[in-house]
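Team,

Forwarding the record for the chain on the shared tracking sheet. I've put the sequence and predicted structure together so nobody has to dig through attachments.
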Amino acid sequence: MSSLPPDGGGPPPGVPPQPRWPQVSQAPRETRGVAFFVAIFLGILLIASAGLNVLLFLLSVGSMAGSGLGGGSLDGLYDEVHIAGERDAPRKVLRIPIHGAIAESSNALLGAGGGTVTLVERALRQARSEGVQGLLLDIDSPGGGVTDSDEIYQRIQRFRRDNPNVKVAALFGDMAASGGYYVAVAAERITARRTTITGSIGVIMSAWNFAEAAKKLGIDQIAIKSDRTPFKDILSPTRPMRDEERAMLTGIVDELYDQFVSVVDEGRKNLDRAQVLAAATGAVYTAGQARDLGLIDEIGDLESVREWFVSQLGGDVEIVEMRRRPGLGELLFGGVPGVTAPQPDLAQRLLLNSTGPRFLYFWQGGR
């Protein structure tokens, strides 16, 4: 006989019934959809964008302050650095470095210190505010843009007219060619180191022409112009230059050359125009040759220039330079504050930049 209960479902007799636990159904695991990860990604982008905007704002404010923009005082932004002479002498001579190709950079914000014209103008403002007794143009440059070189020349000339008691001298480094020499004749005395290369008095415009290569390759440039503007595509690289176009550009170069000669004639009181023209052949000269031609006053060094300032100002002088304190961008990215030389590729951009060829007071051999 079976001991199972009639329904066959209970425990055998004498065995206590076992409790029945309710069965818990397993809910399906929730999965995060694509929208969740997209939201996370967009959130990260938003935070990064906000941080970048704050950084750019701080860099802009810092570089504006470092560049002396906004008309504010320069006090506190620059440190006076001793260069030569007696420390704390009562007579100060401000050294203005003009190094590298003479040109303005495209953006004076976001860490850029501005181009050569901006840097010289800033130094001249410092000279006015500090009441210095002398200026030393420390030039080591192959020249640069016609307009930029003339801007610096005129600003120094204006400074001398407004401050007739301030003595101005120029000292050449490795080279002071073309626009570098153009700037120097604004000084009343020019000293070259015995290893200096100078001269290259003249104007140049360079452009590439691929007409023959384009013809062989079957390349043709289509230029749509009015019959009333036949010179609109002058200096096109894909066709030969016409005689009348060459004559037009040569006329401009000759006029700018005559301006260069006049500037040298005015600045070098020891030379007449015929003597300037004899030296203004585009040739470069050693310091000794330049002295013999009357283009410089002496061969010397920084000490020679200091002695000249002492004789002119009647006592000991200290030659100083005002160097800008590093801004936020320079501290973050390792830049060097107060550097006057533009970007390393600026010489090449002077010759052929995005706007095409330019008229230059520039010695191409000095790149």
